[in-house]
Amino acid sequence: MDSKKIQMPREVHIGADVIDNTGSICKDLRFYDDVLVVTGPNTLKIGADKAIESLEDEDFAVDLSKINDATSKTVEKIEDKLNNISLIVGVGGGKVIDVAKMAATNAGIYFVSVPTAASHDGIASPLASIKNNKGSVSMTAQAPIGVIADTNIIRNAPFRLLSAGCADIVSNYTAIKDWQLANRLQNDSYSESAAALSLMTAKLIMKSSKSIKKGLEESARLVVKSLFSSGMAISIAGSSRPASGSEHKFSHALDKIAKKPALHGEQCGVGTIMMMSLHGGDWEVIKNALHDMNAPTNAYELGIDPDDIIEALIMAHKIRPERYTILGDRGLSRDAAKKLAIKTGVI
Ligand SMILES: NC(=O)C1=CN([C@@H]2O[C@H](COP(=O)(O)OP(=O)(O)OC[C@H]3O[C@@H](n4cnc5c(N)ncnc54)[C@H](O)[C@@H]3O)[C@@H](O)[C@H]2O)C=CC1
Ligand SMILES: O=C(CO)COP(=O)(O)O
Ligand SMILES: [Zn+2]
User: Distance of CA 209 to CAs 30, 203, 282, Å?
Assistant: First the structure.
């Protein structure tokens, strides 16, 4: 049997105001050289400033880069700034984390993940979703050496981001169904332990759907822990298969088609409702749970044109065609797509 490599973070810090310990955590991780902090336009004041202050208090020389997207060009721009830098600290949402992770991987240096929102399960995973001229690509990267999730920042982020994180976890249900199908039909490699962890995480978040509340530290903590364990399922599998199937293809297609896409997790949640129906599963349970989490369940709540939903359903199978799912090789016909979206109340 082939050998297997599993990458996990070395230290994970979850709690109120842990961002103020960024400097000492990086020292404990044996870093002492120059550090590059990567952040986004909204997250500089919310998080990066605090991380920089803490790093400077511990005598790190800190450089700063602000980014707006997660494209391969932006990754290259960050790589160009890495002279004498031995560590990148990414402070922000999923796009910031992915760019910082990918640039550090390409440069052969380390990366610390400081999520400011619990909106996606890439906070600790060894993958980065980067856009190039072919669309979104799931790229192998180094797992962060450390994760610093400040639940005070995360609980005060717009509630929509937390709901999106829950929906990204709910999508594990259809991702696992797709993975099992690919294993049966295409002999794709499958990991029982990764699938079990992914499903357990999705069940836990579904069970808590009514108790996840705006502004509560306990809710922020629960969602961060769940995103972390979903990320660990990705680590064990060595691919995003336990957390990304047909529903993610639908979301990636919407990112290409919609004038103003919604959040990643929100789109994946709506995709899960429809893909669960295609799998013959209980899509109404998924829909009700998403509703309880305040996540969108239809085109109107996503702020997306119903015609774009149909186009994305028709296009979805062409995204990452090597990843076999319930959409098969030919995907949905226009009539089937329309029927599915109407039946599930998405349009
Ligand atoms: N590498 C992986 O394994 C995974 C990667 N992803 C990727 O992550 C991205 C989605 O991440 P998102 O965080 O949904 O999108 P995002 O990075 O675009 O962030 C959404 C918005 O929230 C803002 N924001 C973040 N924290 C905030 C705070 N505390 N207060 C106010 N605003 C705040 C950001 O500035 C941004 O405007 C996608 O590109 C997706 O493909 C998603 C799942 C897994
Ligand atoms: O979003 C992810 C898991 O939630 C990762 O997915 P992709 O591999 O589809 O980019
Ligand atoms: Zn996702």
Answer: 39, 10, 17
User: Tens digits of per-residue pLDDT, 53-85?
Assistant: 999 999 999 999 999 999 999 999 999 999 999
In the structure encoding, which two tokens stand for residue 202, read together?
């999705």
Say which residue the tokens 């937390």 belong to.
Answer: 162
Distance between alpha carbon 177 and the CA centroid of its chain, in Å? 19
The verdict on residue 1 lying in a domain is: no
Q: Which amino acid is at 228?
A: F
Length of the chain: 347
Q: Do 196 and 122 fall within a single domain?
A: no
Burial of 238 (0-12, 13-18, 19+ CB in 10 A): middle
Assign residue 332 the CATH number of its domain.
Answer: 1.20.1090.10
CA distance 220 to 120: 13
Same domain, 22 and 119: yes
Q: Which residue ranges have their beta carbon within 6 Å of ligand 1? A: 40, 42-43, 46, 70, 92-96, 98, 116-117, 119-122, 125, 127-129, 153, 157-158, 161, 164, 168, 234, 240, 263-265
Cα(294)–Cα(272) distance, integer angstroms: 15
Q: Are 85 and 34 in contact (CB under 8 A)?
A: yes
Q: Give the domain extent around 79.
A: 11-156
Tracing tokens 């298969």 back to the chain, one arrives at 241
Contact status, residue 223 vs residue 212, Cβ threshold 8 Å: yes
Does the annotation place 38 within a ligand binding site?
no
Structural domain contains residue 66: yes
Residues 134 and 21 in one domain: yes
Query: Ligand 1 centre and the CA of 187: distance in Å?
Result: 33
- Report pLDDT digits (tens) over 300-336: 999 999 999 999 999 999 999 999 999 999 999 999 9
Q: Is 317 within the bounds of a domain?
A: yes
Alpha helices, H only, 8-121: 22-28, 43, 49-57, 72-79, 94-107
